[in-house]
Amino acid sequence: MARNKHPEQTIQLILDTASRLFFQKGYDQTTLQDIINATKLSKGAIYHHFASKEAIIIAVVDQVGEVQRAVLAEVRDRKGLTGAEKLRELFRTSMQLSFQGKILHMLPFLIENPKFMTLQMQSILGEAAPDYVLPVLREGIADGSIRTDHPEELSEVLLLMADLWLHPILRPSTPEQVRARCAFFNQFTRQYGFELLDGEIIDAMVEFCRT
Hints:
Blueprint: H1 2-5, H2 7-25, H3 32-39, H4 43-49, H5 53-76, H6 83-98, H7 101-104, H8 107-110, H9 114-143, H10 151-165, H11 175-190, H12 199-210
């Protein structure tokens, strides 16, 4: 009855509970029955909103993404920075968010899921690049801190490299390989007037590989 009167509360209960269980136990070790037991909802109530455990995790990741987008929007709209400075802060914040434990505990399953990877590509090309990176690149071109004749293409390439090519969990690597790719990434971006990876970010990626 409560589910019918307040479906948004039921959905949030399922997502909050599943998120906690995925973080504590990992996706593979969490069963749908675990979620049912923890929420004290019936199996029918769970299935009324989500067809499978896979559908739940994708919804959890999307909800985390909503929080991340709000943080990135604040960086994008921040005053008092050049375009290059804002771009560095945008990438720094984005990469720090990507290393949150909640997401990392789910990624091993997600990267093997074609549906998630398709959604990730759509998010990069259809939302993150045009809504967050491109406006900052254009600011940098206007103030002279960024040099490019192709801001739209550069916004997409930067995100594809950072989110897919550089991320150590998407491409398991040795610390030496991570440092080499980061060095290349900075060398690549230098031609446009900026570097995006500082020592702290690189060290965090290397440490993740070691652990």
